[in-house]
Automatic annotation (TrEMBL):
Species assigned in the record: Pseudonocardia alaniniphila
Record-annotated Gfo/Idh/MocA-like oxidoreductase N-terminal domain positions: 2-118
Similarity field: Belongs to the Gfo/Idh/MocA family.
PANTHER family documented for this protein: BINDING ROSSMANN FOLD OXIDOREDUCTASE, PUTATIVE (AFU_ORTHOLOGUE AFUA_2G10240)-RELATED, NAD(P)-BINDING ROSSMANN-FOLD SUPERFAMILY PROTEIN-RELATED
Official protein name in the record: Gfo/Idh/MocA family oxidoreductase
Segments forming domain GFO/IDH/MocA-like oxidoreductase: 126-245
Pfam families linked: GFO_IDH_MocA, GFO_IDH_MocA_C3
Length: 336
């Protein structure tokens, strides 16, 4: 199998290394907007370097992965599917909800398989939690708690272009809640605060957020996000039901210190960043995409899945701005 990878920044270079080690990927073609980066990554992982996305699409690849900057996602994704190539695209489909919806509609019209990057769907703990729900081990759910805490804020330029904590960070929690529970979100209430770097507030964003999601079966999901967790990168999911409770992310790398006497869990070292916390998930995610390209499975995270997360994020942003609950069907109808 011959795959193409567009965008070789932090996550793109990480994907290049993973793809170079995947069985079944016989060759890899890479490109980046910075030629020196293209040459460096290609040399390091033994890939073929090309000068542009257009040349990559014409290089006889069987599938394409897009890890470029967010603003480039729509054009690159549509070019790939118009060429009939199965495509993996990092979230989001586009910066604005209206643009994402237009991209999703174009993708559906082509019938080409597209997988959107939500790696928690491939994390072993999250998979086991979903299996517990599907198998009925938990009874009926009443409470879900999903957590993403970053060790430190991204740079100011990243924050300014991120679209805000709900669209950039909490979307992973929103997707995990939908996927693990198998339910849809019908209402959102969000709040947030700023106690850290001023540049986050200046960008119109918050550094810490809490979101309550009401699911269509009346389950409540509580989502917690912050740019400040200096102990490490904290990703967890708790599911509480009428028959049992389970949690994903309670391993020895959990960046949380117990104050109970004699308790040594977690033994550490804490997870430092998302690439070590979710290393197994990223590998499984890209292996799944290779299966999509080979026609062995459908996309495990479609553009329709991605759009549902977009609506939740838009509702959260509106709720924060107007200090009120927002129903998902309201944001779907909003002009623009």
């Amino acid at each position: 199998m011959r795959l193409g990878l567009i965008g070789l920044g932090r996550i793109g270079a990480f994907h290049a290394q993973t793809l170079s080690e995947l069985p079944g990927v016989g060759s890899l073609v890479v490109t980046d907007a910075v030629p020196a980066v293209t040459a460096e990554v290609a040399g390091r992982v033994g890939a073929e370097a090309v000068e542009s996305p257009a040349k990559l699409l014409a290089a006889g690849v069987d599938g394409v992965l897009i890890a470029a900057a967010t603003d480039a996602h729509p054009e690159l994704l549509l070019a790939a599917v118009d060429a009939g190539l199965p495509t993996f695209c990092e979230k989001p489909l586009a910066r604005a909800a209206t643009d994402a919806l237009a991209v999703a509609e174009r993708v559906r019209a082509t019938g080409v398989a597209v997988q959107v990057g939500y790696p928690r769907r491939f994390d072993p703990g999250f998979l086991a939690a979903r299996a517990a729900v599907v198998n009925g081990e938990l009874g009926w759910l009443h409470t879900v708690r999903s957590t993403t805490l970053d060790p430190a804020p991204p740079p100011p330029a990243y924050i300014a272009g991120s679209g805000g904590i709900f669209r950039d960070c909490a979307v992973h929690d929103f997707d995990a809640v939908r996927w693990v529970t198998g339910r849809e979100v019908v209402e959102v209430y969000a709040t947030g605060s700023n106690r850290g770097e001023q540049f986050i507030a200046e960008a119109g964003d918050v550094d810490t957020a809490a979101t309550v999601l009401t699911l269509d079966d009346a389950t409540l999901a509580l989502v917690s996000n912050s740019r400040y967790n200096p102990r490490g990168y904290d990703v967890r999911l708790e599911l509480h039901g009428s028959a049992d409770s389970v949690a994903a992310g309670l391993d020895d790398g959990l960046p949380l210190r117990s104050t109970e006497p004699g308790v040594t869990f977690p033994s550490g070292p804490p997870h430092g960043f998302f690439m070590d916390r979710l290393a197994a998930a990223f590998r499984a995610e890209l292996a799944a995409f290779a299966q999509v390209v080979a026609g062995e499975r459908p996309s495990p995270c479609t553009v329709d899945d991605a759009m549902e997360v977009v609506w939740i994020a838009e509702a959260a942003a509106l709720s924060l701005r107007e200090h009120r609950p927002v129903r998902i069907d309201e944001v779907r109808r909003l002009p623009g």
